[in-house]
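Hi everyone, sorry if this is the wrong subforum. Our group has a chain we'd like a structural model of before ordering constructs, and none of us has done structure prediction before. Sequence below.
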Amino acid sequence: MLLIGSRAMSLRVASAMKRPCKDFDFVCTKEEFDQWMEKESYKVKPIKVYELPEYSKWIVEGEVETYLEFEIVKPGSSNELLVDLVDEEWLDTPFGFVPPKDMIYTINDSHKFKKFHLDSSNFWKTAVDHFILKQLGAKIRPEYQAFHKLREQESYAGQKHPKLNVSKDDFFKDDGIQYLYEHDDIHTAVMLGEQPAYRYYLRDNEPVLTDKKKFFDCPEQIRMNGMLEECLTLALERSQIVSNFSIPPEVSFRMALSKVCSSITSGYFRSWCYDHIFDALKMYPVHCADYADRFKKALAEGRVRSFSGSKY
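Answer:
Right subforum, don't worry. Here is the predicted structure as tokens:
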């Protein structure tokens, strides 16, 4: 049986953990799970045990706010590769074998862009752990690459990301959002420079597709502005406006930031944004905290048009 996740991280780099660990994440065979249920489950006094067949998992909810997740090893799965990677570096503990720091980071990195439907707390826990491990020098070793690639494929199975090489109407088609105001006008209302930052790195003659070379040729401030403006526009469209501004603006911003760094964007832009998550959080109170008021001002001055039915 293997112990992974934040509990494993707490055993390997205890001084770096910034929160208490309540959950356990195991990788094991079905036989090992059955043995654990028979011999060890009394320690957590299970109140609920259920299977998630589509994820090859068993969940045990304990009496004292304990949540245990058992990933069952299946042929051809990343967990099968993980078991094969166990060597003398792994700690043999009463909970199971605990991976070295680099493997904990590799597992974390393989699902850092995962979309969480109910809230963003899991996203932020993953992000905090990711950057702590990275600061400690953790890396994806060459011998972990095959495992990492397969783990990513499993983590993002069914998670769709936007296609950018389309018209604006197709880009926003069927996204489930009730638009009240023109998208580009919102971008302009919250811009942090002389024009919306994305215009500096749009691909020639493309309405939404950006140019990677242009993006990285831009000054760092333009790239940061682009990231922040995407978050502010998303926060307005999907939280502030639809709630009639009843949600604290920073709450909406953090929600939007987690989506920009996971499910709303993709490719090099998403990766760059993820690497700068905490830079964005630091910049928010200085440059962005008034974004809802700036939008309201632009709306009152007639600089934000009502939605016309087209995203152009």
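For your construct planning: The CA atoms of residues 22 and 154 lie 25 Å apart. The first helix runs from residue 5 to 12.
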